[in-house]
Write a structure and sequence with these properties.
single chain; 293 residues; mainly alpha; 11 helices; 80% helix
Length: 293
């Protein structure tokens, strides 16, 4: 009974929020699709009742807002209705976007950690680099993505790498800021104590700064990997890509396939949640190796 009570206490708020969101979603779908379905009946000069319009809002072919069951059916069909590597499979498009996301995340994370190390060990670089790092995020990526694609294409770079570079451009920032905070988090007395023991800067880094920065690192990585996914999707839009979640969004927008568009958004949300969960599992494993309970 106690275990049951703990489970109810833990998951009841989440279940309540899910039920509330689904209920609000159904109400919004009815409200937004009502005029669409009613006008369709009137154009066809078909007699209708309120219940007919209500049923139509739940199964409209091109709704303004698809109902949750419509979206669930579309996602299920896109995932299980085709082979995983078929061009119509949502799994295939998710894998294309995932490859660019992971490569961009790796590049951006390593670049961010390298920048943080330089900033922490040099006051000159801190004053010269940090303002530019902050300013780099003030320009919307939607404006920069076409420029990057054209420039990199002129250099002969096509396919996966340009998308990964845009993804890395977005995700390096939280890693840099988080690691600067992490590397400077040890108490100054601890640093002075290591210096009295004749510790070299490298020893201070590996014995003190790195262990102190690990919690900041994984917090930054959780933010960075979700932003990296956004960057990969945005990078697919100006290229007219034929594969990827961005390509599905673009096709759904062009042809008015709102259900396809929403299913691509759901795939992106599931992919982001999975990536964050994997990062959290790695964080838990590293924490246990470092002696956390």
């Amino acid at each position: 009974m106690r275990a049951r009570g703990v489970l109810v206490e833990r998951y009841a708020p989440l279940a309540t929020m899910v039920v509330a969101i689904v209920a609000i979603w159904y109400v919004a779908a009815i409200a937004m699709n009502w005029a669409l379905v009613r006008d369709a009946f009137e154009r066809e000069e078909t007699p209708y009742t309120i219940s007919d319009v209500l049923a139509g809002t739940m199964d409209a072919e091109r709704p303004l807002l698809p109902a949750p069951h419509q979206l669930a059916a579309a996602v299920y069909d896109s995932v299980f209705g085709y082979p995983p590597l078929a061009p119509r499979s949502l799994v295939y498009h998710a894998l294309v976007t995932l490859s660019a996301t992971l490569l961009g995340f790796l590049i951006g994370s390593l670049f961010g950690i390298a920048l943080a190390l330089m900033i922490v060990h040099s006051r000159v670089l801190e004053r010269s680099l940090l303002p530019w790092i902050i300013c780099s995020q003030m320009v919307p990526v939607l404006a920069l993505a076409p420029i990057f694609i054209v420039m990199l294409g002129a250099l002969g770079l096509h396919g996966l790498l340009p998308k990964s570079i845009i993804s890395a451009y977005l995700c390096f920032f939280p890693v840099t800021i988080g690691m600067v905070k992490g590397f400077t988090s040890p108490d100054p007395l601890q640093i002075e104590l290591m210096r009295t023991w004749s510790a070299t800067p490298r020893q201070v880094l590996w014995k003190l700064r790195w262990p102190a920065a690990v919690p900041y690192l994984f917090t930054s990585l959780k933010v960075a990997i979700s932003i990296s996914l956004v960057g990969a999707i945005v990078a697919e839009l100006p290229t007219g890509a034929e594969a990827g979640i961005g390509a599905r969004l673009l096709a759904g927008s062009y042809y008015g396939q709102t259900v396809q568009l929403w299913s691509a958004l759901v795939a992106a949300a599931i992919l982001a949640s999975g990536l964050i969960a994997v990062t959290a599992l790695v964080e838990h494993g590293v924490a246990r190796r470092m002696g956390a309970h």
